[in-house]
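INSTRUCTION: Work out how this chain folds

Fields: amino acid sequence; protein backbone structure tokens

Chain under study, with its fold:
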Amino acid sequence: ELLRIKIFDSQGNMDEVQSSVNIIKELRAKGHPITAEIAIPYSREGDLYPDELYVQKAIAAARILKESGIPLAAFRISLKDMGGELDAASAQRLLPKIIQALKNEGAPVPFGLHSHDTGLAKKAYAAAIAACKRDDVDYPLTIDTVECDLFNPSYTGENDWKNTGFTSL
């Protein structure tokens, strides 16, 4: 793997995801060992984002990946929890549904969680690991966390990067 590109499902537009996967396919055909992660933004705002929405988005992403002809192991589908909203109960409830849907689709794409560390990440990750590594399930899971510093006016000049919330841990 030379480079892993994170492709955001922006505003639910899977055409953008498709075009990015097409570019990666072309680059791989030219010998560049590039892989990709299709990142599905996560929110738990009431009825607007039910579990089924994320299951359907994971299936749509898996279909795009399968149709690309690139080995599924070279990809990852992830939930992108930029607001730090994924709690342990949600991870425990949602991940088994997504994993089962990917298996049913015949597309066992490795799964990932990306969370901004707003206090829920550690417990959500523990629940996700437990869901993916039960006795009856052994599903590949990758986790990564981004530190979220609160805005601090003293972070200026050479330290202004601390206000971005994107410092990898």
The longest helix spans residues 51-68.
